[in-house]
TrEMBL record:
EC number: 3.1.-.-
Gene for this chain: LOC113493349
UniProt GO cellular component terms: Slx1-Slx4 complex
CDD domains registered for this protein in UniProt: GIY-YIG_SLX1
Primary subcellular site in the record, as a coarse category: nucleus
Protein name, per record: Structure-specific endonuclease subunit SLX1 homolog
Organism ancestry: Eukaryota, Metazoa, Ecdysozoa, Arthropoda, Hexapoda
Function: Catalytic subunit of a heterodimeric structure-specific endonuclease that resolves DNA secondary structures generated during DNA repair and recombination. Has endonuclease activity towards branched DNA substrates, introducing single-strand cuts in duplex DNA close to junctions with ss-DNA.
Organism of origin: Trichoplusia ni
Amino acid sequence: MSDIVPEIVEDFFGVYLLYCINPRYKGRTYIGYTRDPNRRIMQHNRGTWAGGAHRTNNKGPWKMVMIVHGFPNNISALRFEWAWQNPTKTIRLQHLNLKKVPRKESEFKFKLRVLSEMLRVGPWFRLPLIIRWLETEYIEEFPPERKPPDHMTIVQGPVKSRNLKRKLLNTTFTEECLLCSNYINIGQAKTTCLNPSCELLAHITCLADLFLVPGEYVPIEGNCPFCSTKLKWGDIIRKMKGCAQPGEEVIGEECAEEECLEEECITEEDKADEYPSWFLDCNDDL
Ligand SMILES: [Zn+2]
Ligand SMILES: [Zn+2]
């Protein structure tokens, strides 16, 4: 489809499905979030050094088969991504008990079934989403009883994102926040995941936005949007400040509580570049 002119979409927030075409891992899938699908698929197929996700490294080539876009912001898209990856932990999907049918259903078909259910429940059924097939040979029709709402569109063909970069205050930068896709300027507080093999790198404010529950001013905890590790906000702050890590094992800890994934819970996007005082002191009782 490389001869087709890609459709240009501004303010792009997408959640994509990768399909592995490496014979050794054929049929494996991966769900991810991106603001630039064309760059992201190249990263997945190149490996860690190019910013690829740990789980896709050395298993390529991968094909980005489809992408859902039209989310109003990164938080909305990241919550969609998490729910698609974790249907049994997602409150809005729990009653459906979505599990892959052993031997009868491929991973790919299962992911599409989960998607078809997600698009028909709140908060997502209200969003003006576009379901875009990027690889025509993988197109599957939604079954009549699980069609997306009429206001959503199903399209095929390549897409190119055009996102306005925030004006740079400082010309020296090397890193990019994986949540908002803006550069992380010198002096801006950034964070990584507590899971050492996770590639998460983000502005601390972007992660705080993701973890904030309405009515609260300080995040408590949340799941890493890339590896699903449960992260306690206090530990994140301590790590960012270079303070000693608590002895407890965070990696692989079973998530007992459901984080709030409801669309209504999204807080106003943090537009400021200033940081509130709550994350500057790691001795604070967070
Ligand atoms: Zn950011
Ligand atoms: Zn992580």
